């Protein structure tokens, strides 16, 4: 912690910290006292003008005002673009267990999307036809039957259904269950790279700091199963040009997949009802025991 500022300024910090000394909940006391110390240290270090501090408050106000109840969560976007979401993720998944790596949840999840059968199509807008399949396993290599895979991705225009109200309800979203052998199969389109929304305060921050809004192509998963920890992750297309510059720092090497091309006469094309060629990615997820 820096020792900048006058004695009176430092005394103010200590006075505010001690005002929280009687917080009954010890964890809340720690959270508040540490927040005050770090926030004061930041202000002491950068010595904002009053106009700058007012601009900061206006930025946070607009961040809140930009949020809605469906798919716009500007505070998640802010946390993600400042790398805080991935730092919280790293702290909470520190111990290697053999489970699949986690990554950001992002602001575009919608609860209650349709349950879909094994291999059912979830793409109702054009794109490169794809099959994503694999298994859900325990850390000791046993299949997890009846796991629920909640899946979402953007359309080829880089927008999620809900965000882009022109897309049909539930487009490129769905909930799939694993069979008795832990298998899942999703018929969809190959994900594309897309920019995170730049029409709000976070976009202005990226623009003013010379940063780019692009995320590498990915498919989102939230996987839940009895007696196991919920897994929130993505599968990234392994040849994407933005893998090294993800706007939200979410890429992990273990989460890359290759979409391999199959021809229309392939047995899998018959099984899953593809009329032409399609691309296939395979991935086995490993869940940690709760
Ligand atoms: C997403 O992948 O949906 C996402 C994640 C973080 C910020 C914006 C979007
Ligand atoms: Fe996404």
UniProtKB/TrEMBL annotation:
Keywords: Dioxygenase, Iron, Metal-binding, Oxidoreductase
Chain segments annotated as transmembrane: none
Biological process, per Gene Ontology: catechol-containing compound metabolic process
GO molecular function per UniProt: catechol 1,2-dioxygenase activity; ferric iron binding
Pfam families: Dioxygenase_C (PF00775), Dioxygenase_N (PF04444)
Record domain Intradiol ring-cleavage dioxygenases: where: 132-160
Entry-linked PROSITE patterns: INTRADIOL_DIOXYGENAS
Cofactor(s) listed: Fe(3+)
Family, similarity comment: Belongs to the intradiol ring-cleavage dioxygenase family.
Descriptive protein name: 6-chlorohydroxyquinol-1,2-dioxygenase
Organism of provenance: Paraburkholderia acidiphila
Upper lineage: Bacteria, Pseudomonadati, Pseudomonadota, Betaproteobacteria, Burkholderiales
């Amino acid at each position: 912690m820096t020792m900048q500022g006058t004695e009176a300024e430092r005394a103010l910090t200590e006075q505010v910290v001690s005002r929280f000394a009687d917080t009954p909940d010890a964890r809340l006391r720690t959270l508040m006292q540490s927040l005050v110390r770090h926030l004061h240290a930041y202000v002491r270090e950068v010595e904002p003008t009053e106009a700058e501090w007012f601009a900061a408050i206006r930025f946070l106000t607009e961040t809140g005002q930009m949020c809605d109840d469906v798919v716009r969560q500007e505070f998640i976007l802010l946390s993600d673009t400042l790398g805080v979401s991935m730092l919280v993720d790293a702290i909470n998944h520190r111990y290697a267990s053999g489970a699949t790596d986690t990554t950001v949840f992002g602001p575009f999840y919608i609860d209650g999307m349709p349950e879909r059968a094994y291999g059912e199509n979830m793409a109702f807008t054009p794109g490169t036809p794809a099959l994503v399949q694999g298994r859900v396993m325990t850390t000791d290599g046993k299949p997890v039957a009846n796991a629920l895979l909640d899946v979402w991705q953007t359309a080829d225009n880089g927008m999620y259904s809900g965000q882009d109200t022109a897309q049909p309800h539930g487009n490129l979203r769905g909930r799939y269950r694993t069979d008795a052998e832990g298998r899942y199969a999703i018929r969809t389109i190959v994900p594309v790279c897309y920019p995170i929304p730049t029409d709000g305060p976070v976009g202005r921050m990226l623009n003013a700091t010379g940063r780019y809004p692009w995320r590498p192509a990915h498919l989102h998963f939230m996987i839940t199963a009895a007696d196991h920890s919920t897994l929130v992750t993505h599968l990234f297309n392994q040849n994407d040009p933005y893998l090294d510059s993800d706007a939200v720092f979410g890429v992990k090497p273990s989460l890359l997949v290759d979409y391999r091309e199959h021809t229309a006469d392939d047995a899998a094309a018959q099984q899953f009802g593809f009329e032409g060629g399609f691309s296939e990615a395979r991935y086995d997820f490993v869940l940690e025991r709760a």
